[in-house]
Amino acid sequence: MAFIGILDRTLFRLVSGITQVLIVSSVAAGFYQVIARFILESPADWSEAWTRASLIWTVMLGISLAFRQGAMLSVEMLHSALGPRGARWLEHVILAICVSFLGFMAWVGAQMTWRVRFQTMPSLEVSISWVYIAIPIGTALAIVAVLAHWAEGPHKAVVDETTI
Prior knowledge:
With 164 residues, the protein is mostly helical. The protein has one domain. The protein contains six helices and two strands. It has helices spanning 2-38, 46-69, 76-81, 84-115, 129-132, 134-151; strands at residues 120-121, 126-127. The chain has a two-stranded antiparallel sheet with strand order 1-2. A hairpin with a 4-residue loop joins strand 1 and strand 2. Helix 1 (2-38) runs antiparallel to helix 2, helix 2 runs parallel beside helix 6 and helix 4 (84-115) runs antiparallel to helix 6. InterPro entries: DctQ, TRAP_DctQ.
């Protein structure tokens, strides 16, 4: 069990590091685009494509981090109203729904990636499938994250003090 815990922490630290690098590179490319367009008056054609691609990767990898922390959609009022046994049953239902949806997204994303494998992004001169593959990779990691979060056992409902 300790090995699985180490593997879990290592995997999601790696995903977090990659996600952070991607978001910083996206901001840097966007900043460069503004400087190149309005100050140098010579816009770069690659920066918009890179910003878009890195933001897509950031989101798809980021969902796995959110799911791993348990920051997924849940019904907190229902969770806290149920007893311990009912709350755990609700977690099983939420697990099944999340894994089913993420599995469907991974399958559709893999099909999309395969379909566009011969299209290239002219500004980056790489296949657009490198962007589309973020969908099956991100959702597969999210499935692992959901299962890892569920395997930890029951979690106490987090209620914040936000007022609307």
